[in-house]
């Protein structure tokens, strides 16, 4: 494993505050641990120190810098191996680098085809994926201000995507990242417009309006920045540094 990949892996794990044993065992050099921690342990914008307790630090950055975060959107399918790789190898490391600076706002959008004849959905990997998409959207809805929770949950779900949407898998990932399983279930089964199936249909319509069909597609300010498809990066190198640089430029240009 290349040193840069090892560093990204550890930085992402630190971002999520995962147990470090599994990540650390993959390091060939212990010195990388200190480097990764330095990257993810502090953030500052124009000399403003950023706290790591919820959204408080980010709001402080907004007041000091006067700039909104850059919208970053990941278009995914819950049972897609390319989405799993995209989240683990690109999205999480980028968040580990930039989240505490308040420079980006990440949103998941799920790809599928709404069926207006019956109010349902068609998903590439079947009905189980549709339910998985709904559950992950509910995690985002319920914990929107806490990306370490909802993104960690999506990461955990995708890491063993073949088990989606089995109750044991959902509950295990929810426990690992501190999500309320009962609230997730209530949201997923609700027929309210902003929950459950209707929430997924709205999400899928957004992807269709933008003509995005590939999981995983990452956009910055509404423009495609990187695609993971068929186990390969397309239109990008898959470099965390490249995506961080694009977000930084978009933020600075505001």
UniProtKB/TrEMBL annotation:
<dbReference type="InterPro" id="IPR004911">
    <property type="entry name" value="Interferon-induced_GILT"/>
</dbReference>
<feature type="signal peptide">
    <location>
        <begin position="1"/>
        <end position="23"/>
    </location>
</feature>
<keyword id="KW-0964">Secreted</keyword>
<dbReference type="GO" id="GO:0005576">
    <property type="term" value="C:extracellular region"/>
</dbReference>
<protein>
    <recommendedName>
        <fullName>Thioredoxin-like fold domain-containing protein</fullName>
    </recommendedName>
</protein>
<keyword id="KW-0732">Signal</keyword>
<dbReference type="Pfam" id="PF03227">
    <property type="entry name" value="GILT"/>
</dbReference>
<dbReference type="GO" id="GO:0016671">
    <property type="term" value="F:oxidoreductase activity, acting on a sulfur group of donors, disulfide as acceptor"/>
</dbReference>
<comment type="similarity">
    <text>Belongs to the GILT family.</text>
</comment>
<keyword id="KW-0325">Glycoprotein</keyword>
């Amino acid at each position: 494993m290349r040193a840069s990949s090892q560093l990204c892996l550890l930085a992402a794990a630190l971002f999520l505050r995962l147990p470090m044993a599994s990540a650390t065992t993959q390091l060939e050099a212990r010195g990388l641990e200190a480097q990764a921690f330095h990257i993810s342990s502090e953030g500052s914008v124009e000399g403003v120190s950023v706290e790591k307790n919820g959204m408080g630090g980010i709001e402080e950055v907004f007041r000091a810098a006067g700039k909104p975060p850059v919208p970053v959107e990941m278009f995914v399918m819950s049972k897609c191996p390319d989405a799993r790789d995209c989240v683990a190898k690109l999205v999480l490391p980028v968040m580990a680098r930039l989240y505490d600076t308040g420079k980006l706002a990440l949103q998941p959008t799920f790809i599928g085809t709404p069926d207006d004849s019956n109010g349902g959905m068609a998903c590439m990997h079947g009905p189980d994926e549709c339910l998985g998409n709904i559950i992950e959207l509910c995690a985002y809805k319920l914990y929107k201000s806490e990306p370490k929770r909802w993104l960690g949950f999506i990461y955990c779900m995708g890491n063993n995507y073949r088990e989606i949407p089995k109750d044991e898998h959902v509950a295990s990932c929810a426990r690992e990242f501190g999500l309320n399983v009962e609230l997730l279930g209530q949201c997923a089964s609700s027929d309210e417009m902003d929950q459950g199936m209707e929430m997924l249909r709205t999400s899928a319509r957004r992807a269709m309006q933008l003509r995005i069909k590939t999981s995983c597609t990452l956009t910055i300010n509404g423009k495609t920045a990187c695609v993971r498809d068929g186990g390969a990066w397309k239109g990008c190198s898959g470099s965390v540094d490249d995506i961080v640089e694009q977000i930084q430029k978009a933020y600075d240009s505001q």
